[in-house]
Amino acid sequence: MKKSNIFISAFSLIAVIFISQSLFVVSEVERAVKLRFGEIVQFDVEPGLHFKWPIINSVRYFDSRILTLDAQPQRYLTSEKKALMVDSFIKWRVKDVAKYFTTTGGDEERAKRLLSQRVDTGLRNEFGVRTVKEVVSGERDQLMNSLTSMLDEIAQDELGVQVIDLRVKRIDLPLEVSESVYNRMRTERQRLARELRAQGNEVAEKIRATADKDKTVILADAYRMAEEIKGDGDAEATATYASAFTKDPEFYDFTRSLKAYQSTFETKGDILLIDPDSDFFKYLDNSKVD
Q: How many domains, the chain?
């Protein structure tokens, strides 16, 4: 009884191991090939549950989703023999599983290296027949579309992969060239700044000169008007004094004497030596107390 239980347990264990080694699953985002001793016997295994013979068969899986290859920036020469640093990326995916496996051995990194070489060659050829202006702006979209179609055809034929899109992220001048360009731009901007400052100083001097002239004219006009007003006032005062003098000369003379006394004796420390019989004291001598 014990021997039969051991036999059943051993058989069950072997069956479980056999089944686990015989069944495999291919997901919706994968492509797979089934091999028999390293030789492809089924090129493109459909997604789902499948059977294989343990040890005899093996399965290689590949990602069927769209992948991105970010290429290293490379230096290319245009038709004008001007160097440009180009940074690009590629969108690709496995199309022909059998050819992809045969060419790359199923190694994604190797596939990227081979694809990068072809992209580098294509970009070098296309940049070599175009000017900087055409590459940067004029024919950039046309260049990318043409190069994508060409690379897709080559990649499918040689690597079994489909190139979905190829784009240039940025185009820069090499460091040594960009430094000289930036220096020229900086010099030009400094020259322009000096010109603008000189023009500004010239305008400022004109404004200051105009303001000084206007100030002088305004002050002169104000002084002239003040003198005219003062002259008119003096003339009116003189006329008033003359009119008052003609009406009562004695009173006019008296008020003038009072103002003279007030001005003379305003400060206590003043000393005045005058003849007592002088006309200066005539109103003091002739004063009477009622």
A: 3
